[in-house]
Write a structure and sequence with these properties.
Blueprint (H helix, E strand, L loop, with lengths): L1 H23 L15 H7 L2 E3 L6 E3 H4 L4 E6 L15 E7 L3 E8 L15 H8 L4 E4 L4 H10 L3 E3 L7 E3 L9 E3 L1 H11 L11 E2 L12 E2 L2 E5 L5 E7 L4 E6 L2 E2 L10 E2 L1 E6 L2 E3 L6 E3 L3 E9 L2 E9 L7 E4 L6 E2 L4 E6 L4 E5 L1
Parallel strand pairs: 3-6, 4-24, 6-7, 10-23, 17-24
Antiparallel strand pairs: 1-2, 3-5, 4-5, 8-9, 11-21, 12-13, 12-25, 13-14, 14-15, 14-16, 17-20, 18-19, 20-21, 21-22
Amino acid sequence: MKMLKRKSISIFLSLLLIFLTSGCAKKEGKESYRLPRLPWTLKKKISQLTFCPLCGEEVEKFYANRRPLAIIMENHPRSRPQTGLDKACIVYEALVEGEITRFLALYLCKDALIVGPIRSARPYLIDLSLEYSPVLVHCGQSWEAFDRIEELNFPTINQMWRPKAFWRIKKRKAPHNLYTSTPRLREVIKDKGWEKPPRVSRFLFEEEPSLSPKIPLTPAKEVRIIYPGGYKVTYQYEPEKKSYLRFMAGKPHLDFRTGRQLRAKNIIIQYALTSVIDREGRLKLEIEGKGEAKIIWGGKAFSGRWYKKDPYTSTSFFDSEDNLIKLLPGQTWIQIVPPAAKIEISS
């Protein structure tokens, strides 16, 4: 009987030791940044939930109250596919010199362990990011962008001055191989004392966005955006997930790390006058003032307009009845296109 009792105690202590050591073990690589998952009932008791002001998803208050990161990523063919765009709340795509586009990705409620490739800043990308009061992340800049950063005293994490927050991979050649991670960037923000809450949400989010019956709707199962020069972006709607699969230059736009195709819950096409300003072909995008827009979500599209008073105020998007637009919770892609861009929306 005593032997049985001792054996039972021994088994119990062994199981307890396994539990404690497995719970304290640190995983290698990408998992080292992740926190253990808690049961939902316990998580609800110890954390405050709120809605992310940039994507409308329900998150812990801690993540929604961080300062946004505005990360500039390139889209040269040699930089594809990119990594970490799937974790952004909002992604802008805008033309740069050479008839290619560049991404400005806003990160708030989600972290990305690998983000890149990182590239240089342009003045209009800086002005777009201003709307969110973020920390700008880039590698170098044009002279006009340098002057803009100095004028604004903009907090930036520039690889040329803070190289420890970045690394290069061997699978690609420079300059298309520079990467970072949001945990590393947030360490810099903490060290510099730059942390501050984001601005109030500039979008209204609803699970079933309501529209005035007066607004003409167009079925939008496929959206094709053809930039001058022939570069093409395509979105294809998946009704069961209420989201659009993204294609780029005729191929699925994948995440380099996960291999999964990128998706958008909302697509905003913002028309902006575009002009060449120097011999290098650098551009000026007229993103202040007002212009036309198209809003696409849930398999339908409607026309609207945008308005931006000055560089320091947010761009507001309205429907044809002058109501502020409502979006689905989730990632939004804002495609800034010149008037010459060809837009095809089909059912």
